[in-house]
Amino acid sequence: MQLTKILTKKLTSFWLLSLAAVAFVFLLSAVMSFIQLTYSFQQQKVAELETMLVAHHKLHGDSQLDTWLPPLLSAYNAVDFTLTHDKQVIYQLHQDNPILPESSLTLYQRQLEHGLSLSLTLPAPFVLYHLGWSESVILLIGFIAIGLFVRFGHRWYSRELDGIEQLAQRSKLILEGNLAQAAQLPTNGKPRLINRALTKLLTDLDDAHKERGRLDQFIRKDTFLDKQTQIGNGIFFQNRLDALSHNHQMIAHGVLMLIEFDDVDLVEDKLGESDLTAMLTLTTEAITAVLAQYEDSIFARRSYQQLVIVVPQLSLAEADQLAQRVLKACLALPFYGIGNPENFLHLGSAFFKAGDLQVQLIDEAEMALRAAQLQQVNNWFMYDKGAVDEEIAKGSVRWRSFLENALVSKRFFTLQQAVVDNDNSILHYEVFSRARDHQGKDVRATLFIPMANKCGLMPQIERQILEQVLFTLMPQNDATYCINLSLDTLVSRAFVRWIQSTLLEHRPLAARLIFEVSEDIIVKHQKNTALVKSLDMLRKMGAKLAVDHVGQHVVGTHYIQEFHFDLVKLHRSIVRQVHQRSENQLFIRSLIGGLYRAEVKVIAEGVESFEEWQTLKILGVSAAQGEYLAQITETEA
């Protein structure tokens, strides 16, 4: 841009300079022509005087010069005149003119015929001629016309060159990757043909990006969605269940439910495939409406006649209520044409705690389903395995009291895990949070975060965590830290004002911060103005943006470039056993291909084996984190 501005200024200056040079040469030529013409005219008059003197001498000799010569010399404005014959002065005239300096006088000395010679001093011819008022007006009008023409030409020339400036500005934005801003610039660039070509290419590129996002979504749908019900399939369920477990042990508490339809084959033979699809669609829509209030719920079709629901962070009492609501919503549907509508739908539920084996959990859910089927009536059954953890049994009031006391006492602390790139160098550290109760026991984030969201305390908790990172961790080293932010935090005016003023006060620290947001938040709330403004403010302050849990839901990926994310973190369900799952590899290849030429790094989360890490590097993943690469460690104050 600077080079283009310099070029246009040079062109304009050269145009003005060349025009001024032409005008100067024109005026100089006119003056020289005027001077030369007057000199020629004066010389012609002197030649006529010579002829007249020679003719007079032939006729009258040296007499009678006084009769005609003085008026003639007066008409010539002669200053001095001397005529000699054989070196004898026969006539002499001298007129004083104090106004004219000697430098403005012209001396003519001639040798004539018959021994005559003359010496004539005349004023310089251009001194005798002065511009009158009419000539001055004409000259002034000419100069004004020239000035107006030059002004008009300069403005026209500058306006034409401004079109090149706009083309250069759009080109610079395109090279910097700001395609949306380049497309929104005024389309007045010139040459217009080039400007229209840029606009068309930007439009086609935007369509290509959207088409790529739709292709990614199609691949994810074809890989992880059941074609008949449009919910997750068996692969999707297994991936999400693996993400909730570690070493085949569950990492949180919750409930798993199996819903089975009896004699689906007979129903399909009787009603047809289209009516069966309609029945399953109505069922899945009803269950989805029930699960809408549970943020991290999993709903999939496990087999041809079996649906599965997994809801983490749910107490035993809430699990019982959920099972009743699901069964009630399903039985309220019009199941016409079913052979025995009173014994058609059964639900088996198994409650799990942290540390329960994944295989055991599925077996317990299947046993609960068989127990419900043995009752030979539409019913549900919960597998009972005794007492529930004391942590899970805490009610909402106790949780609010615990979290508020922890905030006041500053009993939230941070842990960190390194994110390693392909060269095994530390890219940055991700920060996790923990809380301590009055007995000094650690409370996992998976336990208190859902309750903090319910109580509206996440902005205060994440502010306290961020303060520890800014004022305790970052002064100790030059590392970069990644902090997760929730939706409540990003739309909180108090938090946004605080983080903005803090980053303004500590501007160098902003470049060492990465703010991470869940894909689910972005997709569901991308029209939220407060969320968009908060993310844009953080990016403009110099911090980087990351989106995690990518691949957890079947959505398009166009939002990654729309929100200008710098990092994309794959969900652990996509990473788990990726070397054995071709469908997960297909998704990763599609995602990385869609981000080609974009300055976005793809990071894998939850890498637990050498085979997973090697496969991810072959697929093009830039970095990863997990227990295989680095352990989660408590930060030192």
UniProtKB/TrEMBL annotation:
The gene is csrD. SMART domains: EAL, GGDEF. Keywords: Membrane, Transmembrane, Transmembrane helix. Pfam families: EAL, GGDEF. The chain crosses the membrane at residues 12-35. It comes from Shewanella metallivivens. Residues 252-385 form the GGDEF domain. This is RNase E specificity factor CsrD. The keyword rRNA-binding does not apply.
